C-alpha cells in the first residue's frame, strides 16, 4: 500500500469509527420491531453504521494544503488517533442531528485548532489552514451520507432527531462549544509542551501503579508483572444478537465506548480493568486512562472530574496542569475505568453513583467509559440500557486454567521451569475434581498456594476459605512479635470475623476505614479475653498490624483528608466469607439467619454472603440449608414482582450446592418458573443454574409440569409466555459463553432435552398460536422440518416465503434471529458456506427451498414491506462464479428480493463489495440504468429463462415483493 493510499485508509477508518460510534449511541433496545416508528429509526441507524466510506475522499484536495515539514506518514498517524476520531464524531453528530450551523462552525474551528496542537512545531497559520481543508473534505463526505439518509429515510431520520434516545447526542452541542473554548485557551506552544510532558509522566506513573498483580499469599506480599501472570478469560456481549469481534479483554478494550463488564466475585473484573489501563498507558498515541474506584466516590459534593483530579495528585503523585483533565475528556483523548459498582452494597447508593456516572458520560460524550460490576445484583442499579452495552467476563476455561497455573508456579512460586511444569501438570490433573472452584481466578490462585505447601486441593468454597483462615492463624501463632500469643491466638478467628462483619455491614466502611477504627472494633471483641483494657488494646494493635502485613487480608486503599491511612480487605470475597460466618454465629438458627438476609436477597444484595450463610448453616445446624431456604421462600413480607424474582432466583442458584429435600427443591423450581411467567418489567437475564446431580430429575420434572400446565391454560398471555420460556430454557438457565466447561455443557444439554420433551408433548398447541417466531424457532431447534415451516406455517396460505423475511423476534423475551432470507445469500454469496462451522441450513434444505420457489409460479413471492440487512463484521466481494449453479439461482433470487424490500438507500457504485452490490442493484432498478459491465457479464452467464427474469426485475416489469394493498 502506498503512503497516499494508507493516508486515505486512515481517514476512511477514522470516519467509519466515528459513524459506528454515533450509531451505537443511538442503537437502543427500544428501537425494536415492536412498532413501525422504532423500526424506521432503526433502519437509519443500521445504514449509518454500515455505510462504506471507501473511495469517497479526494486526496488531491488535501495534499496541496499539507504544510512543508509535515509528512504524510505523520498525518496518517494522527488521523488514526483519538483526537481526530473525536472530531469526526462531533461532525457526524452535528450533521446527523441537524445542529445549527454555528455548532458546525465550532467543529470546524476545533479541527483547525486541534491540527495546530497536533503539529506544534509547524507554522500555525499553515496548520490551521490545513485543518480547514481536512474539515471541508470530511464534511463534504458526511453531508453526502446525511443527504442520502434524508432522501431515502426522511421520516425515519426526522423521528430519530426527535426521539428521547438522542439525549446523549443532543448534549454533544454543548460539548462541542466547551471543547472549542478549551482549545482556544490551549493554543500556546508552552501549554502544549506542558500538557505533553505531564501526559508522558502520568502514563509512566500509571504503568508503574497498575503494571502488576499482587497474588494472595500467606507469607509475603509480592508484585508480579501483569503480563507474566494475567490470563484473559473469554468475554462476550450479553446481547447475543449483535455480531462482535470481542473475544477477550484485549479485544474488548478496542470496543469500549459506553460499556459495562460483568463478572463473578473473584472473577477478575478489577484485574481486567488494571490490565486494560496498563495497556492503554503504554500506547503514547492512544487514549489516556483514568481509574475511578467507585467505592471511594462518596462525597456527593465533589464532581467525578474533581475526584479524578484529586486522585491524580494524592495517589499517582502527578498533579495535572489546570484544566488538563477536562480538556482530555472533552477532546476524546481519555478513557475512564469505573471499577467496582457492586462494592457499593446499599442499592440506593449504587443507584446514586450510577446516575452520576451517566451524567458524566452525558457531559463528556467523546470520552470512552467502562464500568465493572458483579453479575448478580447489577440489574437493581443498572446503567442506562439505552446507552450502555453489556459484556460478560466468563469463568476460566480449562485452557485458561492450565496457562494461569503454569504462570503461577513460575512467577509466583519461583520454581524452576521444569519443576514448575511438573507442579502445574499434577495440579491441573488433581483439580479436575473441583471444576467449579478452579474456574474462578481468585479461587484458583488460593488453590495454588495451598497446593504449593500441602499438595492438597479443597473441595468447596467454605472449605477453601476455612483452610486459608487456618493458615493465617498458624502464621499468627508462629509470629515472635505477638503480645500474649497463647491468650490472643484463641480469639483471632473470632476477631477477624467480627471485623469483617462490621466492615461489611457498615456503609461508611465501603471506601475503607482508618486504623484507629479497626483497633477499636478489635478491642471490643478481644477485651473480655484480657485482664485489662490496655492489654486488650495492645493485642488488638498487634493483631491489626499483623493483618496489614498479610497482603491478602487488609490493604491500604488511600488516605483521609487529614492524611490518615484507609484500609479494606484486599479481596472482597474473604471479607464476605468471614462476615457470613459471623452472621451465622450471631443468629440462633437458620430461620433467624434467613430473616436477616431476606431483605438483602430481595434487593439483590449480599449474594455471596447469603450463599455462604446457606452452606455454613448446613454444617452447623441439622437441615440448616433446607430450613434457611424454606424460610426465605415462604416469607410473605416481600411481595413485589422484583423482590419475588430476586428471592426465587437466589433459591434456584442455591440448588447448585445445597443438598435439600426433593419436595423443597420442587417448590423452589416451581416458584422460580412461576416468576418468569408473570408480566416482566425487565428482560429475563440468563444465569448459570447448575444443579447438584440428585436434584436434576425432580427439578426438571417440576419445570416440565409448570410449563405444561401454562401452555395448555386458557390464559393466552400466560400460554404464549410459557411457550417462549420453554423455547429459551437452555439460554435462560445456562450462560451462553460458559458452554466450554463440562458442567455447563452438561447443564445446557439437559435443558435442551427438557425443551424437546415440552415441545413433543405440546406440539399442536405450541404451533397452533400461529406465531411466526415460534414456528421459526421450532425449525431452528430441529422440531419441525423446513418443509413443515414453509408449507404448514403461518404464511403457508398467502406468501410462504414471508417466514424467511419477517423479522423473527419474541414477544415477551428479548431475542430471536436475523432474517434468513437476506442471511443465506449474504453468507453463501459473500463468504461461502465452508467458512462457518455448523452452517444453519443443510445442503438438502437449500436444494429443497430452491425447488419450492421454482414451483411457486410467477412473482411476487413475499409481502413483507421492508427488510433490514445485518452486515457481517467480516465482509467480502460477491462470488459471481456461484450464480450460474442451481443453488446460486436460489441465492440470487433471495438477494434480489432483499434488494427490492430493503430499507437501505440505492447507490451507484462499481464496487464488488457484497453490500455495495446490493445498493448498486437497487440504484439500477430505481433509476433504470445499466449494470456495471462486470456484473452484467456475470448475469449473462445465467440460463436464458433465468436471465430474462432478472432483466424483467431490473426494468420493473416484475416485482418480487407485493404491494402493500396486495
UniProtKB/TrEMBL annotation:
InterPro entries: NACHT_NTPase, P-loop_NTPase. It holds the Pfam family NACHT. Residues 258-410 form the NACHT domain. This is NACHT domain-containing protein. PANTHER family: SLR5058 PROTEIN (PTHR46844). It comes from the Bacteria.
